[in-house]
Amino acid sequence: MKRRRPRSLKRRLIVQLLLFHIVVLFMFGLAFVAFLIRADTGGALVDPQITDIAARAIARRPDGRLELRETDEMRALRAAVPDYWFVARSGRGEIIQAGVVPEPYRALGRQLDRVGFADIRDLGEPSELSAVIRKADGPAGRFTVLGEGRLFSLTFVVLFLSNLLMIPILALLAVITVIAIPWIVSRAFAGMATVAREAELIDTDRRGYRLAEENIPAEVIPLVRAINGALHRLDEGYDRHQRFVVDAAHELRTPIAILQAKIEGLDDARIVNRLGRDVGRLGTLAEQLVDLQRIDKGVSLSRGVDLGLIAQTVAADLAPILIANGCEVEVIDLGNAPVWGDAGAIERILCNLVRNAIEHGGDHVVIRVQGCAVEVEDNGPGIPDHERERIFEPFYRLRARSTGAGLGLNLVRQVMNRHHGRIEVSDAPDGGATMRLEFLAATRSLPA
Questions:
Q1: Where is the Histidine kinase domain positioned along the sequence (predicted)?
Q2: pTM of the predicted model as reported, rounded to 2 decimal places
């Protein structure tokens, strides 16, 4: 079954806010149109176009008198409105009219010098006395025109103008939503992004670390507190587990030492050798468990550790084991530089690598020191490429029947991580494996 892709909360908020704005704007437009329609009596407007037609139809004779010419516009207007009429007054006081002027407007026509704008609509049905007053320019000059006004529906005009007005508003709103809302949402989620980055840093080496509750939304605080509570419980469980392992390792050391002393006192050399190897494995396992506790408490690094001296010490300490296994060891110091490190921890992990080389390698082990690196090389069967990462996992053994608990190389990697160094596996020239430890030079500062 195909896994469903998680939905973006930010995108959902932006889309929903944009749709909400569109709906609100649309409803506001409808309400605005309804208000204008109801606010206007009759739901109609007077068309002022007749005043412009009249002004363009007025011309001046050569003798200076005004006359009305039958323009195309005028003929079309008369065809549409047979009883069309108007009264026009020039700035000189000249008056010209056409059609039968209704009685209520005859006196008003003589007072057009005092009126410049008006929309007049009577209360009758149909409106027969509707009129309009406008100033208009024509060939004979500027006139104030009083004429019959044709009514047209207000609804269409309001709808058209409101929709025309809504388009730029909606476009502006969309731009604001697409640009401003993501910015606002990003700021609101900034605290959560910080918490997510902090959560990525949590691992077993940073126990006791908790997620911050500052600058995050109140709705997310219960989740952060639940995570912090879970981390607290995990820390307590880890501490109990570590105390048990360390206590068990310490308790095992005494009976292992007693058992080893009793075995060495036996007369049968074969039994002594066989049981001695088994007891040695138990002792090594107990020491490795104790080393885990030492690493967990931290490694105290000091400046100027001599890798060459540590290599010689390890070779000398393991000489009896090497001889017993018919193995030769060679220490090659090509010139080493002082490094940051814990001499005891470096000595223990180098012992682990040499023991592994003895157990899984051939009959020749080389400890090579050069600069800030130490290499342990053997001539055994080597390590396959696909296994070179897994061998550092705890309790993983390259060969199922091999001795050991699978903790040695895991301890080596942990110690190297605490030293800000690294361990690499490669092929040896003679077909075996080479374990290379690289440390931080004492001339450099430790990473924060």
A1: 247-443
A2: 0.47
Q: Which CATH architecture describes the domain 299-438?
A: 2-Layer Sandwich (3.30)
**Average pLDDT for 15-43:** 67
Tell how far CA 19 is from the center of its chain: 24
pLDDT at 288 (0 to 100): 63
Beta bridge partners of 138: 141
User: What values do phi and psi take at 137, rounded to 5?
Assistant: -105, 145
For the ranges 20-34, 201-215, 281-295, 302-316, which has the lowest average pLDDT? Answer: 281-295
Q: What CA dihedral angle connects 213, 218, 224 and 225, to 10 degrees? A: 90
In sequence order, the 6+-apart residues with CB closer than 8 A to the CB of 317 are: 351
Structure tokens at 138: 């024509």
CB neighbour list of residue 338: distance below 8 Å, 6 or more residues apart: 303, 304, 305, 306, 441, 442, 443
The beta-strand segments (E) located in 91-209 are: 95-98, 118-120, 131-138, 141-148, 150-153
422 CB-near residues (< 8 Å, 6+ apart): 416, 437, 438
- Residue 37 clears pLDDT 80, i.e. is over it: no
**Closest to 210 (Cα-Cα) out of 220, 202, 221:** 202
Strands, E assignment, 188-301:
none
pLDDT of residue 152: 54
Architecture of the domain delimited by 214-297 = Orthogonal Bundle (1.10)
State whether residue 5 is helix, strand or coil. coil
Can you say whether the dihedral through the CA atoms of 99, 104, 105, 110 is positive or negative? positive
- Domain residue ranges in the chain: 49-148, 214-297, 299-438
Average pLDDT score, the chain: 77
